[in-house]
Amino acid sequence: MMKSTSKAVLDSGECADVLRALGDKTRLRVLESLLTHEQCVTDLVLELRKTQPHISHHLRILRHAGIIEGIREGQRICYRVNPQFQRALTSPKAQALDFGCCQLAFPEALLQNRLSRP
Fold first, then answer.
1. Does 69 fall in a domain?
2. For 60-90, what is each residue's pLDDT tens digit?
3. Which of 23, 30, 71, 88 fits as disulfide partner to 8, beta carbons 3.0 to 4.6 Å?
4. Quick check: is 3 in a domain?
């Protein structure tokens, strides 16, 4: 899990933990979706066309790695990128997370498509 500092830089052990959590296609797609806006499990199920248990499993892994956090809204839990990781975006319109030890880049067109969705 990332240290709580104002600068979003991970040491090599923390970076390895994050990369391990992101080492799955579904988890990368979940993160891509959450980079642009907060979403609930049901929204992610529809968007990614996966079952609810499958999405919940991957959300739990991302949450345990400290990459995302859940916010309860009544009976629903919505997820967003952890604000510390969100600050690692290289600029407001950036498509890369820069952790100091490594960068994770997303295609600009992909994020633009997500931003244009309701």
1. yes
2. 999 998 889 999 988 889 999 887 776 666 5
3. 88
4. no
